[in-house]
Amino acid sequence: MRTRERGVNRTAVASLMFGRVVYAINWYSLAAVFAFTAAEFHQNVSGLGLATAAFFVGIGLFQVPGGILAAKIGPRLTATYGTAIASMAALLSGFAGNLLEIAILRFFVGLGMAFVFAPGVTLMSRYLKEGSAGLAVGLYNSAFSFGAVIGLLGWAVLAAAIGWRISLITGGALGLFTAVLLFAMVPKDFLRADFSMELRHLRLVLLDKWLIVLSVAVLGFQAGSTIYSNFVSYYLETQVHVNVGEAGTIASLASLFAFAAAPYAGRIFDTSGNLKRLLLASGALMAVGVSLPLFGTVDSAILSGILVGLGSGCGFTFGFAAARAANKLDKEYETLAVSWVNGISLFGDFVPPLLYSFLAIHYGYSAAWLCMGIVAFVLLIPMLFVRVSRQK
Q1: Which domain holds residue 207?
Q2: Which one in 1, 98, 208, 293 has a CA-CA gap of 20 to 30 Å to 319?
Q3: Quick one: which of 311, 159, 285 has its CA closest to 233?
Q4: Whole-angstrom Cα distance, residue 284 to residue 295?
Q5: Is the pLDDT of residue 99 over 60?
Q6: CA distance 307 to 22
Q7: 3 in a domain, yes or no?
Q8: What are the phi and psi torsion angles at 108 (to 5°)?
Q9: Does residue 95 form part of some domain?
Q10: What is the pLDDT of residue 315?
Q11: How many domains are there within the chain?
Q12: What is the CATH number of the domain that holds 120?
């Protein structure tokens, strides 16, 4: 007898996609307005590096706790609570009196977001058509890229029009609305009464060699995307001397091209068997893209955004779809596997902003861009020496 194919829950998918858009806005809103913030607090690029690093420490440290919590209370409630925490911290950033307060609040924005991404991947895969796990990740990442365009471009314009404080408060308020939407529109999780997380299973996930090297590869994409998206606006405004609107438009190119590439990458993942080659090709695009602004021209920054967008849209989709597919245990561990890969990559990503700002101040921006491109590619190399773990 033929089993009935699982259909699409459009309301749940739409709510998750909208939540992902707002998540991205609050991820990038500070980078978009930092030129205004820096002027008020008398800071330079090192201040942006500190606030960005604090965010990545928070989002990296709490990925695994988020995965464990999702296994216990379900991904829906975990994502809802995380969205509420991140949104409240983003809202309060608009009332900060100095850079230290902003850095602390960005840590809590990251902490909250750590409870959102991996549960969201699980929920998207659950409520999209069966057999489309790669497409689910691609669409979820595409929504993030669309939100990043709004955050980087829209929030820069918004800050110029109404002030950076109100723009950050607006993003936080949107996030709180999203938390309510997720709670109301995503179906309740059906938790197994007989399920309990075992230490031996937890160790199998956390010590899986493929997941560890995959997370290092994803860190390469994370580092390149972070450096471009968080620093290129400030770089163009202060070094190339373009206006805030043009800088925001150029900065949003990476997200725009990632938005277009991610769903196609998801379909490729669902049908392709050569994951390492896909990741390597995506990483090469990312590395070249991150290096290009060293030429100090608007054209090089534009081409950089296109390549970074294509590289990140494909690379993140391949990486996180592979992490979910590598789970060999009960389905409750899927979120933990994605959280583990995301956690290592995001926690490691607190270093690149500090390294970039150090290099820019002491050796110049050209050296900073070139070094970060090299770093993004080198992080892919360990993946070549470990066998792919993939469940069908």
Answers
A1: 10-187+196-385
A2: 293
A3: 159
A4: 19
A5: yes
A6: 24
A7: no
A8: -75, -30
A9: yes
A10: 93
A11: 1
A12: 1.20.1250.20
- What is the reported pLDDT for 367? 94
For the ranges 5-14, 25-34, 349-358, 361-370, which has the lowest average pLDDT? 5-14
Written as six digits, the tokens of 352 are 């690149």
Separation between Cα atoms, residue 392 and residue 379, nearest integer Å? 27
Euclidean distance between CA atoms 283 and 280, whole angstroms: 5
> Is residue 329 pLDDT above 70, yes or no?
no
User: Which of residues 333 and 120 earns the better pLDDT score?
Assistant: 120
Residue 317: left (phi > 0), alpha (psi -120 to 50), or beta? alpha
- 174 within domain boundaries: yes
Confidence of residue 192 (pLDDT cuts 50, 70, 90): low
Q: Scanning the structure block, which residue is given the tokens 């993939």?
A: 390
Residue 126 lies in a domain: yes
**Among candidate residues 151, 162, 310, 355, the one with its CA nearest the CA of residue 233:** 151
Number of residues assigned to the chain: 392
**Secondary element (H or E) of residue 270:** helix 253-271
Query: Quick one: pLDDT band at residue 131, thresholds 50, 70, 90?
Result: low
Whether this prediction's pTM lies above 0.85 is answered by no
User: How far apart are the C-alpha atoms of 267 and 120, rounded to whole Å?
Assistant: 19
Averaged pLDDT, 170-179: 96
Cα–Cα distance measured from residue 313 to residue 261, given in angstroms and rounded to the nearest whole number: 5
* C-beta pairs of 274-278 under 8 Å, 24+ apart in sequence: 275/318, 275/322, 275/388, 275/390, 276/383, 276/384, 276/388, 278/314, 278/318
In whole angstroms, give the CA distance from residue 241 to residue 218.
33
CA–chain centroid gap for 227, Å, is: 12
Map tokens 């308020």 to a residue. 173
Only one residue has tokens 């010590």, namely 207
Q: Which token pair is 237? A: 């405004």
